[in-house]
Amino acid sequence: MKNQEPVTARHSLAADNVRVAPMLLIVGPVEDDCGCDPVFDQIPWPAHRVRNCLELALHLHGSPACVVVCERDLADGDWKDVLEVTVSLTNPPPVIVTSRHADEHLWAEVINLGGFDVLAKPLDKQEVSRVLNFAWEHWAVQAYPAARPKAELVGKGEITCSTA
Fold first, then answer.
1. How far apart are CA 26 and CA 150, in angstroms?
2. Cβ atoms 130, 138 nearer than 8 A
3. Residue 52 falls inside a structural domain
4. What's the pTM value of the predicted model, to 2 decimals?
5. What is the 3-state secondary structure (H, E, C) of 28-70?
6. Could you tell me if residue 26 is inside a domain?
7. Which residue among 23, 71, 123, 148 is the one 20 to 30 A from 100 at the CA level?
8. Neighbours of 56 (CB within 10 A)
9. Greatest Cα-to-Cα distance within the chain, rounded to the nearest angstrom
10. Which segments within 59-136 are labelled E, that is strand?
């Protein structure tokens, strides 16, 4: 292990002069319409929200994301369209699909077509944190293999990562 000193992912991943801020891109109305605290507002990463596939494409080409979370069905497409847009990027972000109708069939389809995971609604804060951390780590290892980041959500939403 090269360096075990933790760094805060909220600020950046710093290793071998690589600095990456974990940035979350949320596509569509992924949270429930219950009026409660939105789960993704509690994640300490910068998060941007877009409404549909067109806005996603425009946003990603100007400001890449490390992780994309999208609703299964969108006004102008679905999660497959989101995946198609992301795979065209140099460092494609993992795509996490949310759905009230999440089942084994949807999960298998998402994984087999190149998506990262499925989150069932209503969203569980701990499950969202766990999946986002794995997705961020997956993206960072692929984008910057020398950095070997290890992201972890600790305490009250504090995300740390260490380099190995």
1. 22
2. no
3. yes
4. 0.77
5. CCCCCCCCCCCHHHHCCCCEEEECCHHHHHHHHHHCCCCEEEE
6. yes
7. 23
8. 26
9. 47
10. 67-71, 73-74, 77-78, 95-99, 117-120
